[in-house]
Each structure stands twice: as structure tokens, then as C-alpha cells.
Amino acid sequence: MKHVPEELAAFGAAPAFSTPRSVGRPNIGDRAALFARLNAALDRGWLSNGGPLAEEFEQRVAAIAGTRFCVATCNATAGLQLALRASGVTGEVIVPSLTFAATAHAVAWLGLTPVFCDVDPVTGALDPEHARSLIGPRTGAILAVHVWGRPAPVRELEELAAEHGLRLFFDAAHAFACTSGGRPVGGGGDGEVFSFHSTKFVNSFEGGALVTDDPELAERARRMRNFGIAEAERVELVGLNAKLNEAAAAMGLTSLDSMDRFIAHNRENYHAYRAGLAGLPGITLLEFDERERNNYQYMIVAVDERRAGFDRDTLLAILAAENVLGRAYFSPGCHQMLPYADGTRLPHTERLASQVLALPTGIAVSAADAATIAGIIRVAARQATTPAHAA
Ligand code: T4K
After folding, report:
1. Looking at ligand 1, which atom is closest to the CA of residue 78?
2. Ligand 1 neighbourhood includes 97 CB (under 6 angstroms)
3. Mind listing the UniProt keywords for this protein, alphabetically (predicted)?
4. So what's the pLDDT on residue 233?
5. Which atom of ligand 1 is nearest to the CA of 23?
6. Out of 4, 162, 209, 374, which residue is the most buried by the measure of CB atoms under 10 Å away?
7. Per-residue pLDDT tens for 40-73?
8. Is 362 in the pocket of ligand 1 (CB under 6 A)?
9. Running DSSP on this structure, what letter comes out for residue 301?
């Protein structure tokens, strides 16, 4: 544990870690169970196109999400596209800008227009009142995001969508196995989409899933996922190839077997960060509401430069010198990315996007590592706010 500025690698000392502690390092479950599933798939000679492992994965995901249907996909981006296309959305789709580019891309790739909405200044969740002000004659849907696994205001958005006859979807890439108001994330709006990318706390190498209670939407998405083919090789819809293959499903099932352990581990890390960062001026760890079930996957810290004495990018550099590889998730907001920048200003999004970073967690990071990382931030903060430094 480092205690004084001279011990920081940024000042020439040895780094705190000899190997990197990175955001996004995969959680890997029981390898023997994974290899057994892979061997079974090879023995069966059935590797994709709705195999038994993909079907089992769908059933288990639907059970956790509390939904009637689950359509597993090759990734969440394709899942979002299927959700929008299968439900016949046209025109404009209101999306938050403070998200990974995939949310906006899924909309734009379908020829729909993303309309960027501002967010709550603390939680980063889509602001229903700003969304309301963006609704116009061309609005077809709202696509909210449970950013960093903190649920968007599901009920308010459901009311808003119902009031205006809009489709409502949730990009739940970060929020698998979480609850919102005690209700599992998954049953909100017309449907929700999870990501099981390698960087997610439950991963299938690459993968995603659309969950919904709407039988028609599920059936259309299921067909569109497989080239629009209905029974007997009859093509009925324009389709994608967005299927989850059996190797991915084997990994997904093996990850699910260890899900509770991953959550417990992430939660310990969260508490180590929380204790280590408590009371630091200008450094705010985004809290989880512990009345809910959380996956504790994204450890998000906001750096207020005026109070901390340094900015987010300086902190990322100080940490990188210690072999701690944080990420500026999500910066800039999508509305300021090249394909979308049109001069729109979103003050809360822009401030958060300049202040937030994700800290490493997951099973490759121990609670002792998290305490060490928090200690580095504490030393850096002390250095930055001492009068000598300020002069
Ligand atoms: N909606 C939201 C809100 C999302 O955050 C995402 C994806 C999506 C939709 C779309 O979901 P998918 O279509 O991907 O299912 C990564 C992931 O690729 C992306 O899935 C994720 N969000 C996003 C937040 O993070 P990058 O470009 O930051 O990835 P990259 O390659 O820089 O890796 C991130 C970190 O993870 C690095 O520190 C390295 C580490 N890593 C990564 C991989 C792949 C590993 O240690 N091992 C690995 O195998 O996007």
C-alpha cells in the first residue's frame, strides 16, 4: 500500500502492480465444465443454428430476467437491431448520449435517426423530462440504457412511452442479473437487450440476448436472427445472421454457473473501493443501491477537477503508471462522436463524460488490489491538494 507521493510510480517509484489490473478482464468460470460442454457439442456435430446449448442458455437467461421469451444473439449490438427492426420502429429514436457507441450505432445502422437525450447529472440515467421535450412527429421509440448497471427510470419511461404511443426498449448491456424497484431488469418496456461480451461479468466470449414478454416480437426477432427464415426454409422477413453459436453458449452457460460467485467477488471489490475512497474531496464513487440486486460490474468514479486538484485524464495516467488500466467509460458522449456531431449540446452528459472513469474489478482483481488502487488515488489526491503543489 502506498502512503506518500514519493511512492507513486508517476514520481519514479516502482509500480504498485507488476502485471496489469485492467477494466474488462474476463471472468472465467470452471474450465472443465466448459470443455465438457464443448466436447459434447463436437460429439453431437451440432455447432450453431439453435443448438441445445443455445436453447438452454436462452431458458436460463429468461429465468433470471423474469421474462417469457429470450432470443440469444451473437452480440448485443445485433440484439438491439433485431429489437428495433422486429418491432417495426421507424423515424427517430431517442437515446442517451452517455453510453457506448453501440447504442447509437444500432439505431443508425437501421437507417433510423438517433436523437440524443441528456441524463441525470449524478447517475447518468436518461432524463425522462428531457426525453419528453424531444418527442416529435417522427419519434418512433425510446431506447434507454441502464448505464453502468444502474437501472434507468423504468416506470417513468414506460408511462412516457405509453402516453405518446412509442415503443420502448432498454439497452441492458450492463445490467444483467440486476433489479429495478425489486423487479428483474429484463421485463421493462417492449424488451431489453443484454450483452455477454467477454468484458461483461457473465460472458459467452461474444453474445447478447433480447428478452421480452411479447410473443410476436420474440417470434419475429427469432426469425430475423436466422435470415428471416420461418419453417420449411421459407424466407418471410428480411433477416440477419445474428445467432449465438454453441461454443459461445457453452461459455455463457459456464459463466452462469459461477454468476453468484462473480457477483459476490465484485461486491467485495466495491466495498473495498468504497471504504478506500471515502471522504476524498472531488472523488466520487458512484454508489449502488443495495436494496436492489446488483452485479457490481462497473466501478465508476467521477473526478471533479476543481475540488480534487487534478482531472480525470491525469488520474488515468497516474493509475496507468502503477499498472492500473482504468477506462474513460464513456467519453465523449455519442453526440460528440464524429458520425453524430451536429452541434447539439447536452450539459450533464458533457460534464459526466469529462469526469468519469471505470476502475478495474472482476475476479482478476482482489479486494486487496482494490484497496491498493484506492490508496493510490488517496495519495494522489493528497499530493494534488497540498499547498506546496497548489503553488
Ligand atoms: N450497449 C452498451 C451500453 C455497451 O456498453 C455495449 C458494449 C453494447 C451495447 C454492445 O454490446 P456487444 O455488441 O459488444 O455485445 C468493450 C466491449 O467490446 C463492449 O462490448 C462493451 N460494451 C464496451 C463497454 O467495452 P472496448 O472498445 O472498450 O474494448 P477493448 O478491446 O478496448 O477492451 C476493453 C478492456 O477489456 C481492455 O482493458 C482490455 C480488456 N479485455 C478485453 C477483451 C476483449 C480483456 O482483458 N480481455 C478480453 O478478452 O469495448
Report:
1. 13
2. no
3. Aminotransferase, Pyridoxal phosphate, Transferase
4. 85
5. 38
6. 209
7. 999 999 999 999 999 999 999 999 999 999 999 9
8. no
9. E
